[in-house]
Batch of 2 targets.
Target 1
Amino acid sequence: MSKYDSYFLMGVEDAADYVKEKLPSFQKGAVLSCQEIGDGNLNYVFRVKDARTGTTVIVKQAGEETRISREMKLSTDRGRIESRILRLQAQSAPGMVPAVYLYDSVMCAMLMEDMDGHTMMRTGLMNHEIYPMFGEQITNFLVNSLLDSTDVVMDHKAKKERVREFINPDLCEISENLVYGEPYVDYNHRNNVFPPNAEFVEREIYQDKELRLEAAKLKFEFMNHAQALIHGDLHTGSIFINQEHLFVFDPEFAFYGPMGYDVGNVIANLFFAWCNGDAVIEGEEEREKFCGWVKQTIEEIVDKFIIKFKKAFMERVTDIMAKTEGFLDYYLDSVLSDTAAAAGLESIRRIVGMANVKDITAIADERKRVRAERIILTLAKDYVKNRSSFKCGKDYLEAIEKAVSQFG
């Protein structure tokens, strides 16, 4: 009988023994070391290494409560969802997600490929690294992983079964609260607002009735629009990258929702990097190079997504009515509107909500942080309120320039 026959939270020594027991390649003569490497809010992540061969593997275990609040209880079934979607995404976007070796439903743990040689993208961006291939790579991932999971492409019955398989109520509830509710009405009293911006947030977010109404509309679209199997939390902390390659990982928030949610999250988090670079980089030439690349990449992502989406749609569409002239433009317009909305919602919740973003909180100069947050919130309101007008990358650049100009 194994000690892993019933659930418990593993520590470093447990994780090493677990790998030795579960993976035959690590059993005979393995000399294992282990370190905890996770810095997220929900899970426990360990890297186990065989000293003889240098081979590494990642152990990721789901806890029954979040690491930021013991009051926030979660179903450990999210680990199953994550392992399943990684395998599906590996089929649609080969090589762009880490391989899953095993999922253990008892320990709620996954053994997966170590993304060695890659850096968490948020860390790289905060070091002001430039990734010239990112726009091309992430749009390949987005178009392929999202479109293939829709009923425009899939058999309708198979898609409905997939929707049922990925019902994810606990993680969806977190998004519904942290993204669509609390930043506008602090009903759980856990928003984390930077004190020098408290009056600005009160006036521009909490008291903006039009913004709150739009957020309410978007919340119920998010809850009821089972369009595609989305990652659900696709920020720069969910991407490991180097100059040639990237991995998308951590899709435990996955469920069937509006595909623009993933695209918009990428755009919002890139702009956080712009704000950090604008505030922190001292040399004008270096600052202009990095910040210019970020804006160029935002434009590139939107425009390449549109081009690749149209091409993939025409090649893969199976539904007879979806082939109707004009339907593609109608369908894509809704995705682009959702993209702008999601970029705005993600921007607001990372400044006003309980889960702030490091790109901004790391800005040590109070005056510069105040300015960065006000730019983000102003831009976000434009995204949300005028979401149907964001049709191409240029629209995003013009909105960014407009927001930045308001604060010198």
Note: The domain at 119-406 is CATH 3.90.1200.10 (Aminoglycoside 3'-phosphotransferase; Chain: A, domain 2).
Target 2
Amino acid sequence: MSLSEAVGRYAALWRTPGVPRVMLPAMLARLPVAIEPLAIFLHISAETGSYTAGAAALGVFSAALAVAWPLHGRLIDRRGLRVVLLTLAALHAVALALFVVASSGPSWLLVASVAPVALTMAPVGSTVRAAWALILPPGPALNTANALEAVLVEVFFVIGPALTGLLTGVFSALTTTLLAGGMLIVGSLLYGTAPAVATMRREADGSEPGAAAAGQSDARGGRRPWRIPGVLAILVAAGGAAAAFAVLEVTVPATVSAHGDAAATGVALLSLPPAASVLGGLVYGARQHTRLPVNRYLVLLAVAFACMVPLVFATSVPVLAVCLFLAGLPLAALSSEEFGLLGSLVPKTVINESFALAATMMAVGSAAGTLAAGAVLGWLGPTEARLLSPTAALIAFAAVLSMRATLSTVDSLATADSGA
């Protein structure tokens, strides 16, 4: 595919009615997810004089998000996106005010005040993927949108920490927290009032093709998303892939230190996988795909595993850098296929809850990978700890492979369209 054809696909997506009005506010609302937790960590660490308190606050924040986002997704499926987002925007403003008040109180109260901030953070990232599944027809346009979403996630987490450092240096960590919260609130309000978003609930309730079948599926078993055959495999794979990359956050700085360089060099190297992911995701999203979605997903998981194996045997910092770049190439494409396959598998009436569950599994997998890497690192060493990355990727591959027959039968319309 030529560069002009690739650019044409993204340009065509941008020209689709309703897409810019959804995409721009969603971008504004999603960037704070990469800023707010870090700013809170810096503020609490400075206020208490303890990095332990800051780390505890991050733990509270992550745990609250893991609980909140699936619940938010379920509410959105039942009540509609607009009403839930507008309510969360108002509650987030209140939670930030309580956080400011708690800053003058005891340390335990300040750490505890982080929970309402996280609990009221709107799950824009997962809902915008659901929006594409409802706004765009199955096929190349939806594949490109999912790939672009995965790329944007990587971009946000590349520029988020840098922007946090800049704002904290110019203002303060507390002011940065409030600025990020303001971005989230304004972005959520604009996104939640987009005309295309306003119709999502009605379309999901019955006017879209397949809604009746979805209703029958729910009525038959009163199923929650994880009880639908194949969904649990995708959730496990999402957690496994996230764990594989989270291991690197611990092991790469330790590996660099073991080779006699500063740990900060290892931290800098961690920017290579997201950068490669952006490149890989843009190329992947611009391509036409002829394989079944599940086969594409399995190939990407196998590529991720193959790219992580050399990390175990990296003998120098330059070699490690090359391996990290290679390991990051399939990441955005993986996320794109993951959400595309999940969106094909679940009824549209539970799509927001399903995508929020996938995001939660990524958070859980990331936390598990970090903890496991830290334990193995302290017990055996960095080389053994790096083995956890390909191991987690292999678990993700095995989970999807075990349900390949089931996943091969879903969304035949999308498969036929993407092969056209």
Note: The radius of gyration is 21 Å.
